[in-house]
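Rotation project, supervised by the postdoc (A.L.). Task for the rotation student: set up a whole-complex structure prediction and record inputs and outputs verbatim in this book. Inputs entered:
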Amino acid sequence: MASIADIAAAADLLPITSVAIEGESDLLRVRSTTRAYARQAGLGVTGTTKVVTAASELARNILRHATGGKGVATVREAASGQRRGVQAVFTDNGPGIADLDAAMRSGFSTAGSLGLGLPGSRRLVDEFAIDSAPGSGTRVAICQWDR
Amino acid sequence: MRMGRDLLVTLQGDLDDVRVESVERLVASEVARTGAHGALIDVSGVDVVDSFVAQVLARLVRMVRLLGAEAAIVGIRPAVAITLVGLGSSMPGVSTALNAEQGMARLRRMRADGSVRIDHGKHC
Amino acid sequence: MAVDPVAVVEDLAYYTQMVNTITDYAVIHLDRKGVIRSWHAGAEHLTGYSAEEIIGRTAAVFYTVPDAAEGLAEADLRAAAKAGRYVTEGWRLRKDGAPYWASVVLTALRDQPGSAGFGMVVRDLTMAREQALTLRSLEQLFNSIADFEVIRFDCDGLVRSWNTGAQKLTGYLAEEVIGRHMSMFYTEDDARSGLLDREMAGAVRNGSVEAEGWRVRKDGTRFWANIVLSPIRDDQGEVAGYVKVARDLTERRDQSRLVMQQRDEILELSTPVIQVWEKVLVLPLIGTLDSGRAARLTESLLERIAADQAEVVILDISGVPGIDSGVAQHLLETVEAARLMGADSILSGVRPDTAQSMVHLGIDLGDLHSRASLKDALQLALRLVEARARSGDGVRA
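Outputs recorded:
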């Protein structure tokens, strides 16, 4: 699995939008921002729907599990050679995930894997990276290309 | 919206916790009030169905069944279908149909396959 | 010549037993007047008539009303009587009136004790005809593509179709190449070493083969080609020919993403979603199924379900070389996505060795319908569509 650094390095410097995640209405902003960047990068309907849904899942995780339900989503366009895409990083200062392996274990239902729906989100996007430890919060980076 | 003996519930846009609760209340009271035998939940206007929304839909279906009616989700778009399967939230056990027309046929099929239902004599 | 009566009787019993085990086509004995004298499971399977219902009736009962009125049945028998053997194709009707495209071979039986008359062998080619029509329209599409060579050649390596891109690439006109052997495009060394045969074998084994190498133009100059070869299978799963997509890499001018996308799209076109009946779609899967390809195929299938309001989808895997748990996973995901759009799925083209390896690998398809042949899958699909239509309209308590 790629590291956050790898994913960040793949994205050339391009316009960026940060969305504070503090309440339900912010989920709407995360979705519409991700959708806008995806459209701009020329992603098709399916690729867009998948990355917007993954963003929604990850943002909702922050609302539900992070300390005080607070965090940030940073969305930007990504480019790599001829490919264009959308990249989003979700950061929070919550409790962090003690057993990352368990959280990422790919069962096929969102009921398992500690209820964080991380394997599901991962299946929807081209690139996925997570950094988390107890006491250090969580960072999840995703990237979807136009193929 | 009534369609003969069936109820059509159209969801659009985004569903947050508050809206979800009011939709559930509305559907429950409408099914009880009209004695509808079936309910179709139309999501063709919903672009993004994440695991939370999928849970809400499954709950709506369960709720309608508890009230003695059949229920089906209609109008799931191709991109949404693919996403739900990828997420692992494909709502097994929930009946689905392509659109309202096929949905009504589906409801009739489910009733014909016979769940036992107590008839309160309100219909012909 | 004296014939041993015991041997004849034994042969007859053996022959009868053999015919009775044939289920994919009908082998029927007609007397001199065209009256049906023998019947078997395969004939019932194909036409819907039971032995009691059909023996004693004439073969004209299979023909469509206009054809029967024109005396086509009698004309076909006369042609067989005259030539000894007569092959024809045309629409026929099953017992329930459903039409099918039949391939018929009539043989005049002479001088056989107790069996004068005609032998009639009938095959249902409805699927093959659909595929042929689709192939023709695809070829028209391919012909308009100028950036790629997209051609078809048969199992003997003879060129069967040509397109604008192939002409641009090699300099040959269609009439100069059709019917000629593919080795004409290879260098002498490659032709001699049997490179084409190896590529064809690789395509059959792996579902498709991608290769690069020197090829030769009409004017004798060489170019560095990137080629992809895929086998075309008929609905029995047998290889009926090959599709080749090629482009010129000599100047490395075609590295752009757009062109790669086009190439993938063309390969997708060689496994189109076919609407074979109202509300029934067939997706013939050809070649290996990696997650990228599976995702694209699923997308096209779902779009078609929406566009055609399809209720049943048949996934034909006879062209997929090996079903491992990865492929099974892709199939199950496609089936589940189709279910979310209200469509039932049927797996078809499951060969005995496929079924065996799936069981050994512990692949569980749940309650997914599965059939060995596309024809069986289509029959089930039509039953499912009919069941929906029936209960949907009837008012039942």
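Student's summary: Chain B is about 45% helix and 20% strand.
Supervisor addendum: Chain B touches chain A at residues 14, 16-18, 47-52, 77-80, 82-83, 86-89 (CB under 8 Å).
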